[in-house]
Every structure is written in C-alpha cells, then in structure tokens.
What we know:
The chain is mostly helical. The chain has seven helices and no strands.
Amino acid sequence: MPDIPYDATRPNGHDRAAINKANAQKSTGPRTEAGKQRSKLNALRHGLTGHTIVLPAEDHSAYRRHTQRFFDQFKPSGALEEQLVQSLADCTWRLNRIPALETNLLTFGLTEREGQIDTGHAEANAALATAQAFRDHASAFATLSIYEHRIARLFTKTLEQLREIQAERHKKEEDALDRAADLLEMHQERGELPYNPVQDGFVFSSDDVASFVQRRERLSQARSAAVERFAAGV
C-alpha cells in the first residue's frame, strides 16, 4: 500500500482519494508499441458502444478532417444534433471503407492464385483468377453487402432525423426573431433605445434582431415590387 498517513476518522484508516492519487503518480502509461497503439485507439472509441471507427491501418487525421467537414456543413446546435452529425460522419466513413475491403479481398485472391492459371493470355488469367477469388470469398462479399445496406439505411434515417430536428429549430428561431423584431420596432417608435432582447427572454443579441428587421423590410419591399410589376404586366 502507498505510504499514506493513517486517519482514524476514515472507515479503513486511510484516505482512499489520497491512495488513488499516489497510485496514479506511479503510472507511466503504456510503454510498448502495442500498448501505445491501444491507448491511441481509446480516444477514437464511442463511449456507449466501444466501437472503433478508425482502424489501425487508417489515417486518423483523415478521419478527423472527414468528420469536421460534416460539422462545418450541418452546423449542429446542442448535444442531440452533434450526435446525429457524428453518426453521419461515421456512417460515411464506414461506407467508404467497403469498396476498399472488396478490392483487398479480390487482390488477396489473385495473389493466392498467381501462377496457378495459365491460358496463355494475361487478361484471361486475371479474369479467371478474379472469378475464382470471388467464388471462394462469396460469403465475405455477401457479408459486406449486408453491412453496406445496413449502414446506408442508418445514414438515411439519421439524415432524415437531423433535418427534421434542424428544421424545427430553425422555425422556432425564426418565430422568436420575428417577435423580437416586433418588440424592437415598438421600442424604436417609443424612442426607448437601446433595446435588449435578453430582457424579454430571447437569446439573440441586439445586432441579430436589428439585422433580422432589415432583412424583413427588404423582403417586404421585394414582394411589393414584384406585385407592382405583375400588375403593370411587366
């Protein structure tokens, strides 16, 4: 046991937190290459499932760039949207892996049969070896196809869910901005400025509301101009 001062007020006479801290100081982390690799992979596991998204032979930085592009495109807000966007990134990463696995299976089969088939034509040899490799690994190819369809369905379902959630959020934000804009215009008419939307429970800044008011006015002017052109037969 680590050299921890005895404390009679503790149930076992020792401070467990102090013991844990002392033990942690003795740990130097993984020392072998295998241990370091496992430690690196731990950061790429999902806590709920423990599923490794990035395989040891894959580029971790490429995975991070791949994921970041999804976050940049969908701009999630809140934990649920972030989880859905992460799922989309992981699904596409796994889908992109399947063609490579199929190619590797065929390449492996061709390598196994190199020199075993001789028709006198190199292209015919390759075609027959490919067919034989596909036949020998038919079960593996069927499994990959099943996985591909499952992942594709998960991607489609996740994308639909994300779009529904974001559409609902954007609608609520638009409605809230519309109400805040009405209040801003009322304060402007009364000369009660500056107006702070936070006082009315909004999360928008004054600049956000002012920009929305300007956009709403321009849209109203554009609609009026379109009506006038239609009436004039232009």
